[in-house]
């Protein structure tokens, strides 16, 4: 049976139980995406104390970053520490899901992943690897048996008296052992249709900023009423994305720390705050250009009907119509001369920066990159 057919049940080992001590901090991180150095920075910022704190890595350890082999080895080291739990994400199973029919296409489209790092280390040519992707995976599993076994043995759900952890989603109407193991690691937009859970559910996979249509923030999105915490900060997925570390204790969400990879810049000119009127997230990028005004384009967002001005370089014509090239908010943060910010992107005369966990725009000439 095709292991990705969505017809197979939760198997032994896909569900794990955990016990957290009263008062113990539980640190939850997801979607590391092969960024070992970033994870180390976050653990330092969280003041992670092995043997005292619990640590849960909620999937997507790998893919999209440049240090997948190193990240996997680091995860295996962490897994030997007390109170460390690591879950499978949809980007982690490439080496053991050898029968997945879509795998060759995925491998061809994503150059930054464990498969290609291992191929390079073993001297396997790209063309040869793609010509027999499934056979190449078996070769790599034999070359790296401990790593392959580690990934194959990762659970889909972690359950305790206070929490559920899953990479992407759970069905509130079903007990953990009756969940769909593919939906658990692949479902997008989970919060939009999720029910209410009796314990706090922590998920990653889908950037939390996609859930808020009023303002763009990359820190976790917490639905207190339904007991759902979405912690994916868009690391290596969103422009200006970050790696979030949620702090939990006794079944409650206390807050988070985060790190990103953005270069620093200094503000040369103050800017007054301009609240956001739009916050456009993937995949609703369809717009209608109304007027080109120098370096800006006045647009109407097809889904919401809202009008806004965006840097002209972000408005692109495709075979199916006009679209934004990326997520967009028209927020302009309050800035003081000399303030240090993160520089996420440039678009013509404008620069996308981050102040705290929130991206916004400033004239590019008002910044000096450090």
Automatic annotation (TrEMBL):
Calcineurin-like phosphoesterase domain mapped to chain residues: 25-104
Residue ranges that the Swiss-Prot or TrEMBL entry lists as coiled coil: none
InterPro entries from the UniProt entry: Ap4A_hydrolase, Calcineurin-like_PHP, Metallo-depent_PP-like
Listed name of the protein: Metallophosphoesterase
Species whose genome carries this gene: Allofournierella massiliensis
């Amino acid at each position: 049976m095709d292991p990705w057919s969505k017809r197979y049940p939760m198997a032994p080992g896909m569900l794990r139980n955990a016990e957290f001590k009263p008062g113990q901090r539980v640190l939850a991180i997801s979607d590391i995406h092969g960024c070992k150095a970033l994870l180390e920075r976050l653990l330092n910022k969280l003041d992670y104390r092995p043997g005292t704190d619990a640590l849960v890595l909620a999937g997507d350890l790998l893919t999209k970053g440049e240090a997948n082999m190193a990240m996997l080895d680091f995860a295996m080291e962490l897994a030997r520490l007390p109170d460390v739990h690591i879950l499978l994400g949809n980007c982690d199973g490439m080496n053991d899901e050898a029968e997945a029919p879509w795998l060759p296409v995925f491998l061809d489209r994503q150059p930054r992943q464990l498969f290609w790092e291992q191929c390079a280390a073993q001297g396997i040519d790209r063309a040869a690897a793609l010509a027999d992707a499934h056979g190449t995976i078996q070769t790599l599993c034999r070359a790296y048996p401990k790593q392959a076994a580690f990934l194959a043995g990762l659970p889909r759900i972690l359950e305790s008296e206070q929490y559920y952890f899953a990479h992407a989603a759970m069905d509130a109407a079903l007990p953990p052992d009756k969940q769909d193991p593919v939906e658990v690691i692949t479902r997008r937009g989970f919060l939009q249709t999720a029910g209410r859970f009796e314990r706090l559910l922590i998920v990653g996979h889908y950037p939390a900023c996609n859930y808020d249509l009023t303002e763009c923030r990359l820190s976790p999105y917490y639905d207190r009423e339904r007991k759902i915490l979405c912690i994916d900060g868009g690391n290596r997925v969103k422009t200006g994305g970050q790696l979030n570390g949620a702090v939990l204790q006794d079944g409650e969400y206390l807050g988070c720390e985060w790190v990103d990879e953005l270069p620093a810049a200094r503000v040369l000119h103050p800017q007054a705050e301009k609240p956001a009127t739009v916050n456009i997230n993937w995949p609703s990028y369809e717009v209608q250009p109304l007027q080109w005004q120098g370096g800006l384009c006045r647009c109407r967002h097809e889904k919401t009907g809202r009008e806004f001005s965006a840097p002209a370089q972000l408005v692109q014509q495709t075979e199916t119509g006009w679209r934004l090239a990326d997520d967009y908010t028209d927020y302009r943060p309050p800035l003081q001369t000399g303030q240090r910010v993160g520089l996420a992107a440039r678009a013509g005369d404008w620069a996308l920066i981050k102040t705290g966990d929130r991206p916004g725009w400033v004239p590019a000439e008002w910044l000096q990159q450090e």
